[in-house]
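We were asked to recover a plausible sequence for a given structure. The inputs and outputs are reproduced exactly as logged, with field labels preserved.

PROBLEM: sequence recovery
POSITIONS: 336
GIVEN STRUCTURE:
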């Protein structure tokens, strides 16, 4: 058996002051472990969006009518609250799973050798977004599912997905200066794609805020907009994103671009086609809950796909330390 090292008082004080540094001093994860930790945080950031959508689609948004407790007298759901209470409280508990996944990513990034400050900062950025969104989620409940706060809640979740996607990508790269793989016109085209996708997501939250799925069976405030008009605007933006993606794919093939940006663009195009089919089917079938939930998952995948296209436009090599060359004395001595 391996002997357990003695823990001194200095070790205990160091653990209190900086537990992450203490873990990093005693554990070095493999690059694969760090990548998996970052991926788990990304997956959970998507899961929490989908389950949050399930809360709204089942009319359970006020299943726990207050926050941070579930009721004024109980921290957890009670049998009298029924199915809706279980759904809402279960989604709250998933926040702790998300925190655990983000915490694991932070610990893995902090313990990697050599230490990468940029990677650790991305992990901490996710943590603070989760904390902020948890508080915002509580405000959503306290204001009775006000649609504007619900929209802000989803947009902050999209920001979390963006940071998690960047961190996952960075675990597979070095810390060298980024080197572009395509020309400036292609880069500008992709930035237009990112902007269009951002508008698509933002307008999607307005569609939700004005649509029939209010989030609870009781009377809930809705955005004073015509749902049909906003849905058509959302569809127009979706077609703009699809058109830009197809044009980008064509341009990348024409300029014989590297494999990575071409593959990411092709993947995004396939995701967009599937998302478009789901979107039109749910529109013409009067928004069945199952398809709306699937559409929310597709929205997350589209956002991740767009960001992966953007990140594939450059490469970041490993930072290689300069090795000292032979000294003049050694050179002269050799020649002598």
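RECOVERED SEQUENCE:
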């Amino acid at each position: 058996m391996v002997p357990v090292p003695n823990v001194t008082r200095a070790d205990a004080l160091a653990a209190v002051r900086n537990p992450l540094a203490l873990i990093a001093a005693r554990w070095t994860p493999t690059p694969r472990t760090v990548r998996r930790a970052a991926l788990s945080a990304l997956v959970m950031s998507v899961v929490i969006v989908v389950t949050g959508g399930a809360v709204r689609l089942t009319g359970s948004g006020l299943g726990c009518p207050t926050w941070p407790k579930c009721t004024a007298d109980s921290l957890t759901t009670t049998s009298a609250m029924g199915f809706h209470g279980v759904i809402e409280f279960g989604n709250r508990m998933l926040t702790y799973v998300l925190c655990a996944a983000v915490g694991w990513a932070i610990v893995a990034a902090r313990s990697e050798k050599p230490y990468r400050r940029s990677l650790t900062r991305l992990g901490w950025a996710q943590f603070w977004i989760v904390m902020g969104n948890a508080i915002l989620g509580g405000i959503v409940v306290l204001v009775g599912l006000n649609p504007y706060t619900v929209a802000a809640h989803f947009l902050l979740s999209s920001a979390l997905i963006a940071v998690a996607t960047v961190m996952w990508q960075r675990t597979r790269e070095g810390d060298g200066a980024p080197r572009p793989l395509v020309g400036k016109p292609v880069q500008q085209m992709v930035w237009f794609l990112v902007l269009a996708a951002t508008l698509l997501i933002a307008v999607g939250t307005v569609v939700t805020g004005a649509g029939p799925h209010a989030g609870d069976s009781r009377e809930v405030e809705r955005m004073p907009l015509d749902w049909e008009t906003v849905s058509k605007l959302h569809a127009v933006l979706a077609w703009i994103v699809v058109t830009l993606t197809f044009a980008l794919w064509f341009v990348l093939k024409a300029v014989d671009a590297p494999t990575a940006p071409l593959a990411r663009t092709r993947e995004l195009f396939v995701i967009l086609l599937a998302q478009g089919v789901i979107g039109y089917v749910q529109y013409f079938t009067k928004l069945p809950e199952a398809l709306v939930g699937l559409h929310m998952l597709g929205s997350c995948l589209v956002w991740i796909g767009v960001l992966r296209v953007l990140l594939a436009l450059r490469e970041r090599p490993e930072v290689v330390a300069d090795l000292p060359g032979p000294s003049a004395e050694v050179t002269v001595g050799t020649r002598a």
